[in-house]
Amino acid sequence: MKKSTIIFLLPTIVLTTMAISLPCLCFTQSTEGVVTYSETIKMKIEVPEGMNEEEFRKMMPSEQKASKTLVFNAQECLYSDAPDQALGGTDATFNSGSDDGDVQMDFKIQRPENYQYRDIANGKRIESTEFFGRFFLINEEPKRMKWKVSAEQKQVAGYLCQKAVLQDTARQVEAWFTPQIPLDIGPGEFADLPCIILQLSMGNGDRTLVAEKVELKTLDKKAIEKPTKGKKVTREAFTKIRDEKMKEMGATPGGGGGKMKVIIRN
């Protein structure tokens, strides 16, 4: 019996572009609390050669969901998995017949440990991220993002939000921000709108983040801590390490846009 392992790596998206100055009518001064987001990543997977497509797709979930939190005050914020969100992965085994005999494939959906800290006042970021059991610590001053704001509005988690589109032809990112919380932050790498981002859509909906709950409250003094775990590397060095490992495992390095990466190991 042949045996292979498929590992689905949940992506961390990094976008950089130029700066823009945008107006915002901020009619409250609520600048401390916690936003809880629901993250959904669609799984678009090609069926491996020799596998029974119908049976394979029955075994595979069509999407992966997780709960994320953005803890913030006027000076800093921290984005990570929600405290009750399980890390690690979900395993399953799939067996199929082929011309060469039975084939067994183990697949695992991995959710790596990841913390993204932002010094709002000084425009600095620290990211602690796990990749194949190794931890890396990235300190950087990201380039500011350029957004185009439209007049379109809607409600997200009970807050009136306005639409903005990232001006980066290589990416498709749509954001909804609320002037009720006047901080230029958002989940993960996303920022540089005049107010907090409560919803994101990437790659035509391949990956979405939607605020489910916004709690404006006084935080504990230790609620936001700078990540310290991992080997200190530059963003460029981490990208090189990641891409080389992905290539070694048989996956296409680079990419992004919110889709899962698929690795098949024999």
Count of alpha and pi helical runs: 2
Strand content: over 45%
Q: How is the main sheet built? A: 12 strands, mixed
Radius of gyration from the CA trace? 20 Å
H/E element string? Answer: EEHEEEEEEEEEEEEEHE
Low-confidence stretches: 3-28, 255-266
In whole angstroms, the N-to-C terminal distance is 12 Å
Structure description:
- This protein has one domain.
- Residues 3-28 and 255-266 have low confidence and may be disordered.
- With 266 residues, it is mainly β.
- The longest helix is centred in the last third of the chain and has 14 residues, at 235-248.
- The chain is built from 2 helices and 16 strands.
- Strand 3 (63-72) and strand 4 (76-81) form a beta hairpin.
- 8% of the residues lie in helices and 47% in strands.
- A 12-stranded mixed beta sheet has the order 10-11-12-13-14-2-3-4-7-8-9-15, covered by helices on one side.
- It is globular.
